């Protein structure tokens, strides 16, 4: 059993980023607009060898709001709202495609939301074919979608598979009836199991299930029951996310604030999940993700090619990510950009034939170094200083004297092992990996006016 003291949990369970990007989104600036993004996009075509493409499309609609949800969603039971959205999205897809070198292959494609299966089978097909006509997909491209088992039909899944989708990710979160009732997401086990069996029979290469720990009324015992049900379904991958309590951003979360497990209680739930999944043969990739030992994520972690982006861990190193749709984020070699989060603002930009870029950031040389350091810590657990020195032509210890000093208390607490040539994250440190990464985040040292991040555990 993973023994962690209450003191340690209290010490390290502090607000901190999840590091899907560096610099993190609160540091991006509003003055980075469509012109900057177009310039960055054009520059990305000049990289040699050419960088492959990862495409993300945000489909924001859901029929009802799950109260824990931190995504950018539009709630409506009137499915007609999707028609104008798809028109605008197609315009944006066309704009991005026309500006990118057509020879750059799409190696990764993902629809997220919201609930992408809010769309009808014919809408899904039209949108996918529209995209395929404008980009060149690699023969082995990962083509994935997030689905909500409560609203996903057999016809939709068959359509997706026929179109070439080979990865599917299902939201579950928790099977406990009281938890489900409290978060307004009633999802019987049978509904999920039926969908998973259908996906298996249709030959999807990879099936993922999402759980969340730290939801209201969860206990280690109740959570283990949900975990065991998931293990019984044998998904290829599992994401066990920490519930992010950010009521200053998501007001609806306040409704159950008195029932959420905190501190050591939340840690025990996390620990029960991690122990159960690893005992069942899954490997802990880190930062909420598990996979089977022969999964390519595990292989990529072993050969140090694993990377992290807005969709979690990925094996597609070196791809430029282009996000399309409301609130979607693009992550390129030297810049990040985000679209308007508000539907009206997104529609307004497109109506004026303008890319809907709301904010972004061009990375400085220092950002690039720190991003590489944080990425290696998050993805590989061991950072070889020489890799950073060779990539950026610097002396690691001379570049990071303060950070090495700040790591010493973490080493004393058993989170990292420091040696002359490397920084190794221990098993304990992998649980507090966000805290380890935070040591290298120079932006955290600026004073903040308001809370920005959920707690690290
Ligand atoms: S279905 Fe998914 S995206 Fe929609 S509200 Fe629930 S958790 Fe959020």
- Biggest β-sheet, characterized? 9 strands, mixed
- Name the hetero compounds present: iron/sulfur cluster
Question: Which term fits the overall shape?
Answer: globular
The total number of structural domains is 2
**CA gyration radius, whole angstroms:** 21 Å
* End-to-end separation: 18 Å
CATH architecture of the largest domain: Alpha-Beta Horseshoe
Structural class: alpha/beta
Polypeptide structure, described:
By secondary structure, this protein is an alpha/beta fold. The protein folds into two domains: 338 residues, tm_1862 like domain (pyruvate-formate lyase- activating enzyme); 81 residues, Arc Repressor Mutant, subunit A (Orthogonal Bundle), CATH 1.10.10. Helices cover 39% and strands 21% of the residues. The protein is built from 17 helices and 19 strands. The strands form five sheets. The chain has a nine-stranded mixed β-sheet, with helices on both faces. It has a three-stranded antiparallel β-sheet with strand order 14-15-16, with helices on one face. Strands 17-19-18 form a three-stranded antiparallel β-sheet. Strand 14 and strand 15 form a beta hairpin. The longest helix is centred in the first third of the chain and has 18 residues. The two termini are 18 Å apart. The mean pLDDT is 94. The structure holds iron/sulfur cluster. The site of iron/sulfur cluster has 11 residues, from loops.
């Amino acid at each position: 059993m993973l023994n962690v003291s209450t003191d340690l949990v209290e010490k390290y369970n502090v607000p901190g980023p999840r590091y899907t990007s560096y610099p993190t989104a609160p540091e991006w600036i509003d003055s980075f607009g469509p012109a900057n993004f177009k310039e960055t996009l054009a520059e990305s075509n000049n990289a040699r060898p050419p960088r492959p493409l990862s495409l993300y499309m945000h489909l924001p609609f859901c029929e009802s709001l799950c109260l824990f949800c931190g995504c950018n969603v539009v709630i409506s039971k009137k499915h007609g709202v999707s028609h104008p959205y798809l028109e605008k999205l197609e315009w944006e897809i066309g704009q991005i495609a026309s500006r990118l070198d057509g020879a750059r292959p799409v190696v990764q494609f993902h629809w997220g939301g919201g609930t992408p299966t809010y769309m009808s089978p014919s809408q899904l097909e039209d949108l996918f074919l529209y995209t395929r006509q404008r980009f060149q997909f690699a023969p082995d491209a990962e083509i994935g979608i997030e689905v909500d088992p409560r609203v996903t039909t057999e016809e939709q899944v068959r359509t997706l598979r026929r179109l070439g989708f080979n990865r599917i990710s299902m939201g579950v979160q928790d099977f406990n009836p009281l938890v489900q009732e409290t978060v307004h997401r009633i999802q019987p086990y049978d509904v999920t199991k039926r969908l998973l069996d259908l996906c298996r029979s249709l030959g999807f290469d990879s099936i993922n299930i999402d759980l969340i720990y730290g939801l209201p009324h969860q206990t280690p015992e109740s959570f283990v029951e949900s975990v065991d049900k998931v293990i019984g379904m044998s998904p290829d991958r599992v994401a066990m996310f920490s519930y992010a309590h950010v009521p200053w951003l998501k007001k609806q979360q306040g409704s159950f604030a008195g029932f959420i497990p905190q501190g050591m209680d939340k840690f025990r739930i996390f620990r029960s999940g991690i122990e159960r999944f690893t005992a069942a043969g899954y490997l802990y990739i880190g930062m909420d993700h598990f996979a089977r030992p022969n999964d390519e994520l595990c292989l990529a972690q072993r050969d140090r090619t694993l990377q992290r982006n807005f969709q979690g861990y990925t094996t597609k190193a070196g791809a430029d990510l282009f996000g399309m749709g409301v609130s979607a984020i693009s992550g390129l070699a030297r810049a990040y950009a985000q679209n308007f989060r508000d539907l009206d603002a997104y529609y307004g930009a497109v109506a004026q034939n303008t890319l809907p870029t709301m904010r972004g950031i061009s990375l400085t040389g220092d950002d690039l170094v720190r991003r590489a350091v944080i990425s290696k810590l998050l993805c590989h657990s061991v950072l070889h200083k020489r890799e950073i020195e060779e990539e950026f032509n610097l002396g690691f210890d001379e570049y990071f004297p303060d950070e090495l000093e700040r790591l010493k208390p973490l080493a004393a607490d058993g989170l990292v092992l420091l040696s002359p040539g490397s920084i190794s994250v221990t098993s304990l440190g992998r649980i507090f990996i966000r805290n380890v990464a935070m040591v290298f985040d120079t932006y955290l040292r600026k004073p903040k006016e308001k809370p920005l991040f959920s707690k690290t555990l």
